[in-house]
């Protein structure tokens, strides 16, 4: 039941930079489908973990067959909650994001872990996992397949968006420190082969 | 980036700026001094909560990391 996605990527940026970019990745050229971003909640726990909740609004682009079957769905954007925990102790950021509306049509739960490695301080490992499910009787399989395809496409954009934010941060810090030479772009991402499918 | 509350975007920007500075310069360096952004957050938060109610966004009572319990831990 449902569809599962898993990917693991190493990027050549220090964990601290990746996290700083994580909060600043919107807007970016690849995130035109993200309409709003808000922080709803933040707390530093006694054991120095940072808990955050963000609310995102995204466009709800459906393939034409789904538009015909579910005309009501067009009227509202998708609301997504993203909860995250930054743990300085084990150098990890774990985020969980899921849609809180249109959930019967399709529920996508995405879990990301950004891990800084002690022995490889300039690298960060990004693990992304998603579960796509639909509660629509008789159409759950095509809906889930569409959902997985859209997720894959969005995942590529998400990585590009993060790299874009990282690049901006690096340029900004180069300017601040009076570094005249443009820092060589040191972002290197290896990811599984993607089959981007566009749905209007 | 816009806030879900059209009138809250400026408040959001001010809070985000404060947070991003605190996060990079204090939190990540293990500095546990008090959060300088709480007042800015409060103003921003009040504005956003109003917009959320007006737009009927279903976030009330959603548990932190809610769906995590159903997923296997990797």
From TrEMBL, chain A:
Location of region: Disordered: 173-200
Domain PRELI/MSF1, chain residue ranges per copy: 2-174
GO cellular component: mitochondrial intermembrane space
Biased composition (Polar residues): 187-200
A UniProt-annotated Pfam family: PRELI
Protein name: PRELI domain-containing protein 1, mitochondrial-like
Annotated source species: Sinocyclocheilus anshuiensis
Gene name for this UniProt entry: LOC107702168
Automatic annotation (TrEMBL), chain B:
Signal peptide annotation: none
Reactions listed under catalytic activity: a 1,2-diacyl-sn-glycero-3-phosphate(in) = a 1,2-diacyl-sn-glycero-3-phosphate(out)
Molecular functions per Gene Ontology: phosphatidic acid transfer activity
UniProt keyword annotations, A-Z: Disulfide bond
Biological processes, Gene Ontology terms: phospholipid translocation
Statement: the UniProt record of this protein carries the keyword Disulfide bond: yes
Gene Ontology CC: cytosol; mitochondrial intermembrane space; nucleus
PROSITE patterns the record matches: CHCH (PS51808)
Pfam family, one: UPF0203
Domain of life, source organism: Eukaryota
InterPro entries to which the protein is assigned, alphabetical: MDM35_apoptosis (IPR007918)
Transmembrane listed as a keyword: no
Recorded family membership: Belongs to the TRIAP1/MDM35 family.
PANTHER family membership: TP53-REGULATED INHIBITOR OF APOPTOSIS 1 (PTHR46403)
Protein name from the UniProt record: TP53 regulated inhibitor of apoptosis 1
């Amino acid at each position: 039941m449902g569809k599962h996605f898993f990917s693991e990527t190493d990027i050549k940026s220090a964990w601290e930079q990746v996290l700083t970019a994580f909060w600043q990745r919107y807007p970016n050229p690849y995130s035109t489908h993200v309409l709003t971003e808000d922080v709803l909640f933040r707390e530093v726990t006694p054991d120095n973990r940072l808990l955050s909740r963000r609310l995102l609004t995204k466009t709800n682009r459906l393939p034409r067959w789904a538009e015909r079957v579910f005309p009501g769905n067009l009227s509202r954007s998708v609301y997504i909650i993203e909860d995250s925990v930054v743990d300085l102790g084990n150098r990890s950021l774990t985020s969980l994001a899921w849609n809180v509306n249109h959930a019967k049509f399709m529920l996508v739960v995405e879990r990301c872990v950004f891990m800084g490695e002690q022995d490889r301080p300039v690298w960060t490992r990004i693990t992304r996992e998603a579960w796509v499910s639909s509660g629509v009787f008789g159409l759950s399989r095509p809906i889930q397949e569409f959902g997985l395809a859209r997720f894959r496409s969005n995942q590529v954009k998400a990585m590009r968006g993060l790299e874009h934010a990282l690049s901006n941060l690096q340029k900004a810090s180069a300017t601040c420190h009076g570094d005249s030479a443009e820092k060589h772009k040191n972002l290197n991402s290896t990811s599984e082969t993607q089959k981007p499918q566009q749905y209007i | 980036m816009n806030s879900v509350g059209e009138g809250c975007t400026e408040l959001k920007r001010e809070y985000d700026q404060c947070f991003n500075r605190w996060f990079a310069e204090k939190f990540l360096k293990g500095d546990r001094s008090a959060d300088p952004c709480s007042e800015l957050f409060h103003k921003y938060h009040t504005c956003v909560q109003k917009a959320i109610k007006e737009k009927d966004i279903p976030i009330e009572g959603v548990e932190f990391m809610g769906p995590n319990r159903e997923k296997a831990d990797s």
